[in-house]
UniProtKB/TrEMBL annotation:
Annotated GO CC locations: cytoplasm
GO molecular function, one term: kynurenine-oxoglutarate transaminase activity
Domain Aminotransferase class I/classII large: 30-379
Name by which UniProt lists this protein: Aminotransferase class I/classII large domain-containing protein
Organism the protein comes from: Rufibacter radiotolerans
Length: 382
């Protein structure tokens, strides 16, 4: 007798990130698609992992994370945002930020609940909502600056809205929130009883002297929010898959119920190493300048090209229009660029549920200088 299988995610296939990276490998293209550095993490951090392994820290860590690491996260949070989360009841270490996002959604979204998503958005949000039986409600960000239309957000909020997912600095656009955004969000929380999931993995990549405006800087927002961060983004270690979530005790308790059955705990030697390395404040405090230098170099290198670069106030992504080169859809153009020009990128339409296409592609500039120069040389030939 044949087996009948009904997919829980019928519209989901291989992610565009995997597709473009594979295409880059097949054609020997320079990979500016997937968001990871092509340079190493600090050598001292690798040494600390090695020391932790040789010291015997190779078994399960406590499910919420090593106490020493949660304490260091709490201290860092207070330093940066003036908010001191209790390490025992408000901080949870996760196997990457994506796990934290999934666990937060699964913890509070029930079948039929509405979850508001601002598009374009990171591609893990909607599948996680659907797996929990939630109903995604999409609100487009304004193009081309990708700012939030708060009137439209308010118009789409209902008493069934369980969760609002926000992301600043924003992937894929690089947009960052302004003080007026926090004020507008705070006003809406006085009218509707929704929770907030704040994806802040690029918190240390805000440029031009501007601060990162975390939800944790506003007590009224922090008390109804899951705030997600990524050690992978901060320390150039995306392959380690270590992140964390800060949330008030009641939300953390529900979050941990999911987390303990999702991954249980995160790699122990990495946690020991990160706990020690967090004493080095210089690394994350100088990260904005580090990535701004790469942004400015890439912008300068592409100045002679036919690409029109959009403003990039944060993240390590640069968006560009390509209308002077081609009128083809962005997915088609991205594949052509990979095969024919030898540079892999990400089409921005894939971040929209309906494939809305503004003719814009995304470059990742978290690369060595020689990588950026080689890519720009090819792009300027178009």
């Amino acid at each position: 007798m044949s087996i009948s299988l009904q997919s829980k995610l019928p519209r989901v296939g291989t992610t565009i990130f995997s597709t473009m990276s594979q295409l880059a490998q097949q054609h020997g293209a320079i990979n500016l698609s997937q968001g990871f550095p092509d340079f190493n993490c600090p050598p001292a951090l690798m040494d600390l992992v090695n020391e932790a392994m040789h010291a015997g820290h190779n078994q399960y860590a406590p499910s919420p994370g090593l106490p020493v690491l949660r304490q260091k996260i709490s201290e860092k949070t207070q330093l940066l945002y003036g908010y001191l989360p209790h390490p025992d009841t408000e901080v949870t270490v996760t196997s990457g930020a994506t796990e934290a996002l999934f666990a937060a959604i699964a913890a509070v979204v029930h079948p039929g609940d509405e979850v508001m998503v601002l598009e374009p958005c990171y591609d893990s949000y909607v599948p996680a909502i659907e797996l929990s039986g939630g109903v995604p409600v999409f609100v487009p960000l304004r193009f081309p600056d990708f700012s939030v239309d708060w009137q439209q957000v308010e118009d789409r909020l209902t008493q069934k809205t369980r969760l609002l997912i926000i992301n600043s600095p924003h992937n894929p656009s690089g947009a960052v929130w302004q003080p007026t955004d926090l004020e507008a969000l705070a006003r809406l929380t006085q009218k509707f009883p929704f929770l907030i999931l704040s994806d802040e993995v690029y918190e240390h990549m805000v440029f031009d002297g501007k601060p990162h405006l975390s939800l944790l800087t506003v007590p009224a927002l922090a008390q109804r929010a899951f705030v997600v961060s990524s050690f992978g983004k901060t320390y150039h270690t995306t392959g380690w898959k270590v992140g964390y979530c800060i949330a008030p005790p009641a939300l953390t308790a529900e979050f941990r119920k999911v987390h303990q059955y999702l991954t249980f705990s995160t790699a122990t030697p990495f946690q020991h190493a990160l706990a020690s390395f967090l004493d080095n404040q210089e690394h994350y405090l100088t990260l904005p300048a580090f990535y701004q230098q790469k942004r400015d170099l890439f912008t300068q290198l592409l100045a002679p090209s036919k690409f029109e670069l959009l403003p990039c106030p944060g993240t390590y992504f640069q968006l560009a229009r390509y209308s002077k080169i081609s009128s083809t859809p962005d997915v088609e153009f991205s594949k052509w660029l990979t095969k024919e020009a030898g540079v892999a990128v990400i089409p921005v339409s894939v971040f929209n549920h309906d494939g809305l296409d503004h003719g814009v592609i995304r470059f990742c500039f978290a690369k060595k200088e020689e990588t950026l120069r080689a890519a720009a040389e090819r792009l300027c030939l178009l």
